[in-house]
Amino acid sequence: MEKRDLINILSKVKNHEMDVDEAVLKFKLEPFSDIDIAKIDHHRGIRNGNCEVIYGEGKSAEDICAILKNMKDHEEKCVLITRLSSDKAEIIKQSYSLNYNELGRIGYVGAVPEPDGNGRVLVLCAGTSDISVCEEAAVTVEVLGNKVERLYDVGVAGLERLLMNLENIMRADIIIAVAGMEGALPTIVNGLVDCPVIAVPTSVGYGVSFEGVSALLTMLNSCSSGMAVQNIDNGFGAAVFASRINHMKGSNK
């Protein structure tokens, strides 16, 4: 159950289309399901606006299918699966109509909702090696009900690529900026715009980049104030944060 379902039930009670006892019954339905392999939180959508997401890494395709079945039985409209390998995706497709993005290692079952966020989320990255994290973020943003645009390979090694897209960047309502190596791109972007910027370091880089730690520290130590920073390779977390901002009342320009 999502927050919009809760609002719909309360509206029906208000308009005398549903009696109070029926509404109470819907609210009292089990808040989670224990299916041995997982305890599935069905009231997460009521609490924070979005249903539970399946983290695919470390789970078998069969376990993911079992969780999917339970969530669909509880009328979850669109279920997101992150860190999903292509071999598991092929197995899941035998039972469900899975929309799978191999680059982002992310998929979903169900219909993507019409965008109801206040503005446009721009996902951009420094280099093509960062695209997998960007795609995880972009697909998540879409599934959570937001308009999304992508702008890839505009890193600081060729700054003219970024500056040629400056008008588009400045029109964004929220920006997710993804970068590996030294991680300088989000700082530059944040110094150019007046919208929230969410920085995501990636594990892309040589030797002393320490699998993304160098980029993470650069972003945490940014001299461009007000920038939010996510964990290494966490495109999903950046997208959820962006969606929450985009669905706040009065958050659009």
List keywords for this structure.
alpha/beta, 2 domains, 38% helix, Rossmann fold, globular, four-stranded mixed β-sheet, 11 strands, 253 residues
Give a quick precis of the structure.
This protein has 253 residues and is α/β, with parallel strands linked by helices. Helices cover 38% and strands 18% of the residues.
Molecular structure report:
The chain is of the alpha/beta class and about 250 residues long. The chain folds into 2 domains: about 110 residues, no CATH class; about 130 residues, Rossmann fold (3-Layer(aba) Sandwich), CATH 3.40.50.1970. Helix content is about 40%, strand content about 20%. The protein has 11 helices and 11 strands. The strands form 3 sheets. Strands 8-7-9-10-11 form a 5-stranded parallel sheet. β10, α10 and β11 form a beta-alpha-beta unit. α4 packs across α5 and α6 runs parallel beside α11. The model has no long low-confidence stretch (mean pLDDT about 90).
Helix content estimate:
25-40%
Shape: globular
**How many strands appear in the DSSP assignment?**
11
Q: Class by helix and strand content? A: alpha/beta
**How many domain modules?**
2
Beta-strand proportion: 15-25%
Low-confidence stretches: none
SSE pattern, N- to C-terminal: HHEEHEHEHEEEHEHHEHEHEH
What is the CATH topology assignment of the largest domain?
Rossmann fold
Topology diagram in text:
Blueprint: H1 3-14, H2 20-28, E1 32-34, E2 39-41, H3 44-48, E3 54-55, H4 61-73, E4 78-82, H5 86-92, E5 98-101, E6 106-110, E7 120-125, H6 131-143, E8 147-151, H7 159-163, H8 166-171, E9 174-179, H9 185-190, E10 197-201, H10 213-220, E11 228-229, H11 235-246
Parallel strand pairs: 3-4, 7-8, 7-9, 9-10, 10-11
Antiparallel strand pairs: 1-2, 4-6, 5-6
Helix pairs in contact: 4-5, 6-11
